[in-house]
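Researcher: Next entry: Exocyst complex component 3 (Platysternon megacephalum).
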Amino acid sequence: MEETDREAVATAVQRVAGMLQRPDQLDKVEQYRRREARKKASVEARLKAAIQSQLDGVRTGLSQLHNALNDVKDIQRSLIDVNKDWRQSINTIENLKDVKDAVVQHSQLAAAVENLKNIFSVPEIVRETQDLTEQGELLQAHRKLMDLECSRDDLMYEQYRMDSKNTHDMNLIHVYFGDMQKLSEELAKQLWMVVQRSLVTVRRDPTLLVSVVRIIEREEKIDRRMLDRKKQTGFIPPGRPKKWKEKMFNILDRTVTTRIEGTQADTRESDKMWLVRHLEIIRKYVLDDLLVAKNLMVQCFPPHYDIFKKLLSMYHQALSTRMQDLASEDLEANEIVSLLTWVLNTYKSTEMMGNSELAPEVDVNSLNPLISQNVIDQLLSKYMSTLTSNIIGWLRKALETDKKDWIKETEPEADQDGYYQTTLAAIVFQMFEQNLQVAAQISEDLKTKVLLLCLQQMNSFLTRYKEEAQLYKEEHLKNRQHPQCYVQYMIAVINNCQTFKESIISLKRKYLKSEMEEGMSSSHPNMDVILDTIAKEGCSSLLDEVFMDLEPHLNELMTKKWLIGSNAVDTICVTVEDYFNDFARIKKPYKKKMTVEAHRRVVVEYIKAIMLKRISFKNAEERKEGAERMIKEADQFRFLFKKLAAGSGEDTEGLCDIIVAIAEVIKLTDPSLLYLEVSTLVSKYPDIRDDHIAALLTVRGDASRDMKQTIIETLDQGSSQPNPNYVPIFKEITVPSLSVPKLLK
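Model: Predicted structure:
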């Protein structure tokens, strides 16, 4: 206490010191004293209240403890009294055992009395139930069956309660009610028959299906009640639980599976379209069944059965199993396509699960795939392999058929523009189109793969086509009279190349996206090259045909006969024009090139005739006459090829100008100007060689050896600047004579 007082005094001193730090605060001493007095009074009042509250609580607690002590003493005395009474009643309880047995026996007898009527009338009830079952009165038959089962179950339960180990009495009851089990099984058969035909029954007699569902619901309730009693007592009647609801769904599941599998009416041997028919029947049956289930069956089943959802699941699973089975068979290419198209497209389309009448219960996006991606990949791989073999076979057969046409004695058909053609391109690309359309039904990816395959096989096919066209030409050269329509069919081959080009472009545009088309074009560039090569070789072979006919007339050029007067050039022009009447049936890109090539070859052959030195003019008169004839014939050629190239935009003047330029050299009357004229010729046509000049001077017939040597040597020392647009022509012309040095000697 003293220590506490000292701390209180010290604290008070500090507070007073804090209040009186300035002189002016001395005036407020009285004010401070009153404030502290009020605080002290307040604290003392709270302290008294707290102490009083604590005292009241302690007083109450003591009172309750006293009461509890009294209660404990009372309970102790009561327990002593109860113990005395229990000890005294033990003998009395043992004496009541006989009463207990009597009560149990009374209970059994009461149950027996209660079921006595049913017990004695079991045979009669069995017969009635059997008759009702046969008559289709299923609800009434089940009611009687329930009464029989209830009687049997109550008796067996009472026997179980009295002596659960007494199997003899239990078996006796079971045997007595033995016919009841057969009735139950017979009734179940009737129920399952209705369930199996539920999709038909619900349309004709929905009340029958409702009766079946009601019976199943009754049995489910009894099952639940018996299971609850088993938990409490350990007893359950024989044959329980029946689980008829579970059996009903199993029956429905088997029925759905059988319905799906039973739709295959044909085999591949009896009908090539067996799978298409099978899948179409499945589609129709499943759609009809689900519509019946949605619109009618749901009204016959309790909502908690969720019958439509369960049937949808059953159909989906049955379809999945069936599709897996079909996929595992050795399917042909068209059958693989039919199966994949049905699985990937038809199944979820508006023709089946996506049908608006099935919405919103059926959500196609939530349906699992009918077959796994792995199986799909295997089928696609097999399809691509089979398709590759088929395309190779189809292309080979198409080419063989086309080759047979080449040797026909009738001209090939012409298109609407009059161009010769064979059916090869149409057959090939019709085949490609059909396969691409089929692939497009399955997926974009497969469509692209099939297009790539078609283009790859087209590449190989064109190589064979080129080889066959070359063999066709070689066979014709062995006997030019056979085949009779060689020219016309070679024209058709050339035109087919253009048709192939256009069809390939069309195919890519139709079945490829633009970004993929660019990559595809770069990956298949040599198809155009092969086609151009085939067309070029075809055009060349046709021109060879022309020039083989022209050969005798070309041999007349620049001869004595030609100088005296020959119609060789007239015949050449008529022959070329006649051939080009047939060549008019060649499509423009190739006809244009062919006209230019024919023009060039005619001029080359004419110049070759000059360089062969078949004639050497003896005097100026002959040179003039020959030169004028050359100029005239150059004009004939110019007119001819201008006519043939009409509308093509080709410049046909330059080639014939070479003949005119050579004629000017021959026509020159003043030999002193010969060097100048020859140098002009060389400057225009820089590929002209010394042997060409020597041959030309030999044809003139008035140039001495020294003059030839001087002109050639002088020209060799000079340099000429060729025209960048000039196409060399003299390099193709050889002079079959002695070399220039030997000639000059």
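Model: Note for the record: The longest helix spans residues 29-95.
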